[in-house]
């Protein structure tokens, strides 16, 4: 099963020049030696050290800059934007001649629609809340019966 995340992440080499590169260098050059000096060998101790000593006393001293304006720059999300349209995974499936699809070892029957979609590719979108919905040409389609038979 191939899962395609609907995100486009573009990173350029220019991004890694400057602060992100210095942060990575600081973490590599300072964090591990500091943990060795303090004889920290467990994940629990490492997390405690990282949050209580390393971040406030070592890392923040070099990288934290107080903001010029203290008010938040975040804006409320407009009610017209549905985050489910942006945060989901897409899995593609081909529709069989009898308007069924195979998914997770089971055969699902697609409810009748006006167009013949036999041989076409549909998307199964899985959302963070566990919902799964079927789409063809960005229109939602539905199942006639949940499961026809187990393969």
Would you give an account of this structure?
- This protein is of the alpha+beta class.
- It has helices at residues 19-37, 43-63; strands spanning 4-5, 89-94, 100-103, 106-110, 121-126, 132-136, 139-141, 143-150.
- The strands form 2 sheets. Strands 1-2-5-6-7 form a 5-stranded antiparallel β-sheet, with no helix packed on it. Strands 3-4-8 form a 3-stranded antiparallel β-sheet, with no helix packed on it.
- Helix 1 crosses helix 2 (43-63).
- The protein starts with a strand and ends with a strand.
- The model is unreliable at 1-14 (pLDDT under 50).
In a nutshell, what does this entry contain?
The protein has two domains: 13-63; 83-150, no CATH class. Helices cover 26% and strands 26% of the residues.
Main attributes of the structure:
disordered N terminus, five-stranded antiparallel β-sheet, single chain, 2 domains
Q: Please estimate the helix content.
A: 25-40%
User: What is the tally of beta strands?
Assistant: 8
Overall structural class, as computed from helix and strand content, comes to alpha+beta
Mean pLDDT figure: 80
**Terminal residue distance:** 15 Å
Strand line-up across the major sheet: 1-2-5-6-7
Name the overall outline: elongated
Total domain units = 2
Strand content: 25-35%
**Helix tally?**
2
Could you describe the largest sheet, including whether it forms a barrel? 5 strands, antiparallel
Spell the H/E element sequence: EHHEEEEEEE
Low-pLDDT residue spans: 1-14
The whole-angstrom Rg is 25 Å
């Amino acid at each position: 099963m191939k899962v395609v995340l609907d995100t486009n992440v573009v990173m350029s080499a220019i991004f890694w020049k400057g602060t992100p590169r210095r942060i990575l260098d600081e973490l590599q050059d300072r964090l591990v030696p500091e943990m060795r000096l303090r004889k920290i060998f467990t994940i629990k101790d490492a997390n405690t050290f990282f949050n209580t000593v390393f971040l406030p006393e070592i890392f923040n001293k070099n990288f934290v800059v107080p903001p010029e304006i203290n008010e938040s720059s975040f804006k409320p999300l407009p009610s017209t934007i549905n985050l489910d349209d942006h945060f989901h995974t897409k899995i593609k499936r081909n529709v069989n001649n009898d308007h069924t699809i195979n998914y997770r070892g089971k055969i699902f029957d697609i409810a009748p629609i006006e167009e013949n979609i036999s041989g076409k590719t549909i998307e199964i979108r899985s959302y963070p809340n566990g919902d799964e919905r079927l789409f063809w040409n960005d229109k939602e389609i539905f199942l006639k019966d949940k499961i026809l038979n187990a393969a």
